[in-house]
Amino acid sequence: MAVDVAGRRLFVAELGNGSIGVVDLSTLQVSGRIRGLNEPQGVGYLPSTDTVYVASAGDGSVRTYRGRALEEAAHIQLGEDADNIRVDSAGNRVFVGYGQGWLAVIDAGQARKLSDIPLHGHPEGFQLGNDGDRIFVNVPDANVVEVVDRQGGEVVARWKTGQAGENFPMALAEAYGKVLVAFRAPAMLSAFSMVDGARVKDARTCGDADDMFVDAKRHRVYVSCGDAHLDVFELEDGSFRRMASLPTAPGARTSLFVPELDRLFLAVRARAGEQAAIWVYRPAR
């Protein structure tokens, strides 16, 4: 998912339908769709140009759509399994994980690929450091977290995850100097030092984790999981403890926390007798 805060639009990848749903956040109704996509997975939004970026696993493409009408503006071919997208608004760059181990670097202004950063396996969750120099990448195929030098375009550190596997979601708690990683096997949340990759804290979390976000205002972490739970952790001095485990719906693991709106959006799949929906959570004070 991605959000246009000013335009109050939420963009939701509908992989099975080959589309991107557009939700009007003023009415909480679907206001439109981008159709004809081949397994859309990653969605990003660049406010400065009012552009939506969509990565599709089926054809390995990144397509861009601009303005309120969401007219297609560009088509960038990458390779198989185009997946997660991260947008660097300040640097006017878009990063896309794809293939057997690549991060594509896209010039947002010219809508063209500038380079590929090689990794040691397919990238799952990754985050751009606010320092502008580093990218932290989950590479579950190799049981590592890789640290990329953004300027040099290469991996400069590899943090082994030990017996923990399937590291998919990631979030940065930069105020505490920590990289937070959620594992699926076993279901666990871990904190790594941003300085040297030392693993400093582990805690049990919900199963089949797919998205995770830091609420800097409340010093909390939100983890959405396919086992029908949304876990809430309290951050304290870089450590954490689970405050709550909220029941959701089976398979509802895709989420987006938007600090500017103070809301967490959870994508809930269609079930017997119920349509697919977006559940909206307001964090407790």
UniProtKB/TrEMBL annotation:
Gene3D superfamilies according to UniProt: YVTN repeat-like/Quinoprotein amine dehydrogenase
State the protein's name: YncE family protein
**Organism field:** Pseudaminobacter soli (ex Zhang et al. 2022)
InterPro entries in the record? Haem_d1_sf, Host-pathogen_enzymatic-act, WD40/YVTN_repeat-like_dom_sf
